[in-house]
Structure formats: structure tokens, C-alpha cells
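Model it.
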Amino acid sequence: MKIGAIIQARTSSTRLPGKVLKYLPYNSKVTVLGQVIRRLKKSSLLDMIIVATSTDIIDERIVDIAVKENVTVFRGSLDNVLERYYLAAVEYDLDIVVRVTSDCPCIDPGIVDYAVINHLESAADYTSNSLIRSFPHGLDVEVFNFNVLEKAYLEATHDFEQEHVTPFIYKSNPESFTINNISADEEITAPDIRITLDTIEDYALLCTVYDYLYPTDNFFNIGDIVNLFKVKPWLKLINKNILAKKSFNNFDDELLEALKLLELQELYRIKKFLEENVDSCIK
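Modeled.
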């Protein structure tokens, strides 16, 4: 059985372009993507690590980082990330795929191994630690069988299913798969901590976390992170107002999320207009 982690990475992120190329720790020589790769190398169960990026010329730097870190590179579609995952898994003959995103530089290899073991022992089709949130945002891992990925690739038709890889499994067709969610132990349960990278505020927080923890242990774990936030709860204020990027498969849910964003940006007039005309807006 061949288990491989596929890290999706691109430089053209919408909210913070080039985010995975930023240095962490700040002013160091290691990129965010480099940290993700180095941390995954500490896993005891992964047979290989693949950085899956696009064929776009702007992603040449992604390739350079992967080569420097001595891991495999696969290049495919920029927008159809599901296809990119599937073709990478086919090319390297993976039986089990571990999905990690390149904007999670605090990913814990211990959690990755725990997810893989739980997935195999439960004989699940798909395992995640974020369907019901108990771990901090930014320590997300998904594990799924190749045949499940293949079914998603062959049958997914919606843009959000192709862009985000796994919604076809757990959102569009949960009845067709054995879905498994793993939860954090009580002492490390912290769903209110956000240590993923989508915005400049997220980057400021990650730089601060690395400043505190990295000098002592380059591979600090979830326990270290949760303890740091307990000792210094003010850290949560740095990116407190950031809303996680989400995908929606219907107009109603997307409209409700838009209203939240308008409230956050204090765009009250347009928010009021939408609320007053919600019946005509919802199809």
C-alpha cells in the first residue's frame, strides 16, 4: 500500500497573492511552502510527498521550492485542482491520498499520522479532522482512498467540487461514502485558533507564533500551539475578524455569507438593501 501526501500549491491566491512564497520565520530563508514540506517529512507513515502545482509560468517558483526541498513535483490544471490531484495520484500510483494545503505551515505530522491510522483502522472511504471542527484552523488533514478520488474526478461537475477537491465526497454525495471525522483530545481542542494563511493578518500571527515557538523547536506541535494561545490569548486578536474562505453549492447559503461579509466591512446600506429584497434575490 502506497500512501502519499499531495500538497496543492499556487502563487495566484486571490486574497494574498504569493502567500506560500512568504518567509517564515519572518526574514528567514524558508518559505511557507518549505515549512509545510519539512513538517510533512517528519511523518512516519508517508511514502512520498508530492507538490501539485499548475503549469502556469508564475508557478515556476513553486517548482523551485519543491526541488530544493527534494520532493516530487506534479504540474496540472490551474483551476481544476481535483483533476490535478487525480492525475498526480495516477502518475505516482498512490493507494491512499493525504490532502494538505500549502497555506498551513503549522501542520502537525503527528496529526497526519493519526488521521492515516484512524482512516485505515476504520476502513473509511474518507477521513477528515475538520468536518466537525475541534482542531485549530490550519492543522487540517484529509485522507481518502484512490478509488474515491477517481469517482470524484469522473463524476464531479460543479466548479466548487473541482476547485476544492473533496466537496464531491463529503458535501455533494455523503451517502455514497463511508465518511469518518476525527476529533481532538480535550486538552488540545481549540477550534477558535486560526493559524492558516489567507490574509496579511494571518501572516502577522504566523510570524508571531514562529517567533515564540520555532527557536526552541523547529517542529513544534499542536500541544505547543494550544499552550501558547492559553498563555497569550491576545494572539487571537491579530486575525480575529478574518472569515475563513468557504465554498457553497447553493445561492441561499452564499447570500447569507455575503451578508456577513458586508456587516464585517460596515457596508450597511447594501446589506440592508439585500435583506429587504432577499425574496427577490433568492432563486
